[in-house]
Structures are given as C-alpha cells and as structure tokens.
Write a structure and sequence with these properties.
Shape: globular
Number of helices: 12
Structural class: mainly alpha
Largest sheet: 2 strands, antiparallel
Distance between the termini: 32 Å
Number of strands: 4
Number of domains: 1
Helix content: over 70%
C-alpha cells in the first residue's frame, strides 16, 4: 500500500506503521483480533457494572467500571502506533467536551446518575481504537468489497427495524444522513460502517442495562421527532468525533497536512484527466 493509498481515507489518515516482516504477520493479526474483541467484551462488562441491576446490589459498580476503562485505555494506548496514540489522547478531550454539550447542555440523553461517568470519555477513544484494529484485519481488507455492502445492509436493516418496532424516526433520519455522507467517500466507507455497527452494539448494551437512556423525543424537546432508546443512527455523531480528532492531529503534525495537500492535488489531477477522457 503506497503512502497515497494510506491517506486516501480521512478516517484512516492515521497511516499504518510499516508492514511487519512475513514471520510477524500471524502474531500481528492475532494481536489485532484480540484487541478489538477484548474491547467489545469490556464494553459490555463496564456497562453492566454501571447498570440498574448491579447498582441495586453494589454501590460501587460505577467506580469499578471507571477503573476497568482506565486500565483498558492505558493498555491500548501503550501498544498503539504513534498516530493512533495521538488520536486517542485528543479523543478523550473532544469526547469530554461533546458529552458535556450533548448530555448536560442539550439533554439529548441522560446517564443513570445524571452526571457523566468517568469511564465515558476514555471509552470513546477505546472504541475508536477497536474500530481502527478491526478495519485492519486481513480478512476485512481482503473482502472489503463484500464486507462494506454487507455492513451497509445490516445498518439500514437495523434502522428500518428500529423505526418499525420503536417508532425511531430520529434514528432513521440520522441513519439516512449517515448513508448520504459515506456514499460520497468510498475510501472512508468501511471505517465508518464499522463504527456504525460498533457504536450500535455499545448503545444497545448500555441502554439495555440502564447505564444511560435516550428520551422518547429528540433532545426531549421535539415532539414531532420521536426517538428510540437508543436511536439507531446515532453513529452519525461519531463521524464528527472522528473528524475533530483528525483535525487535532493535523494541527500538531504539519507533515501530515502536507501529505494531504499532495494527495488532494493528485486526486484533482486524476479527476480532471478522467473528465477530459470522458469528453474526448
């Protein structure tokens, strides 16, 4: 994969480290799989410990959740490539601001104890890292032409079912906007579709155990926009999270900005050449 190919997708601008030698490929593949699978298990555990059932029997479940997430963040951060480390670090601050804005100010959703649990901001970065490793799985990359359409089908089917079963108009609208955005950029599609499904899993688990909930109408304000608990397409907002993390990285890494400018120039030339050939 050339440096240009590595940077085509804004979501994957955290260019992969140099390819390991063949003898290390199997170990690297096992490590990637272990990381994203472990994150999925830990997310379920953290949410359950902060849910209604544990809270009724144990007063310190949320503190245990906080400790688990901090350990998970440190584990992933220490073993991550340099650029993923930077994105995870920026992600904690961006997620904190986003949680304050959307949960406490706008009231889009509410946590069990109203205040934002300490595990949530690092949890966003942990989720980002899980998707980062998943989309680099060899079988995902090899079959991406089949995997991406399948993920899109599952995402739309989930939104359609949630709309029918829970009158989730808000989630359906978010899903529609999400599909429109990813349709315009094929190179980022796999990353964002993976994020859609990972976040969907997180939201279903978290709301099922009562760690947080979404109001019956969008922002608990717009009665004409009913919402599911959770809204199916809430991953739309994670696109903003990803974009802000990327902007923070580019501001700190001018060499990456220069590579993106070169990429943009190459793509513009290619587009112009394609247009000229089509007109000839």
């Amino acid at each position: 994969m050339s440096s240009v190919d590595q940077l085509r997708s804004p979501a994957l601008v955290v260019a992969e480290p140099a390819r390991p030698r063949a003898r290390f490929d199997r170990a690297s593949a096992r490590r990637r799989t272990w990381m994203w699978l472990t994150v999925l298990v830990l997310i379920a555990l953290v949410c359950w410990l902060d849910g209604h059932y544990v809270a009724a029997h144990f007063a310190y479940g949320q503190w245990v959740s906080n400790a688990i997430m901090v350990v998970a963040f440190i584990w992933l951060y220490r073993s991550a490539p340099t650029r993923l480390r930077a994105l995870m670090k920026y992600g904690v601050f961006i997620a904190t601001a986003g949680e304050v804005l959307f949960s406490l100010v706008f009231g889009m959703y509410e946590y069990r104890q109203v205040s934002i649990p300490l595990y949530v901001p690092p949890g966003h970065s942990v989720m980002y890292a899980a998707v980062y490793y998943f989309v680099r799985e060899r079988w995902v990359l090899k079959q991406r032409r089949f995997v991406a359409p399948l993920m899109l089908l599952v995402s739309v089917a989930y939104a359609a079912y949630w709309l029918h079963a829970h009158n989730d108009v808000y989630g359906a609208l978010c899903t529609f906007l999400f599909v429109v955005l990813i349709w315009r950029d094929a190179e980022s599609r796999l990353f964002f579709l993976s994020m859609f499904l990972f976040v969907g899993y997180l939201e279903l688990v978290g709301t099922a155990v009562g760690a947080w909930f979404w109001w019956p109408t969008a922002f608990d304000t717009f009665a004409w926009l009913p919402s599911g608990n959770p809204p199916s397409g809430i991953s739309l907002f994670y696109m903003g999270f990803d974009g802000l993390c990327l902007l923070a990285l580019l501001r700190r890494r001018p060499e990456l900005r220069a590579r993106l400018r070169r990429l943009r120039s190459v793509r513009e030339r290619q587009s112009a050449q394609t247009t000229q050939l089509a007109r000839a």
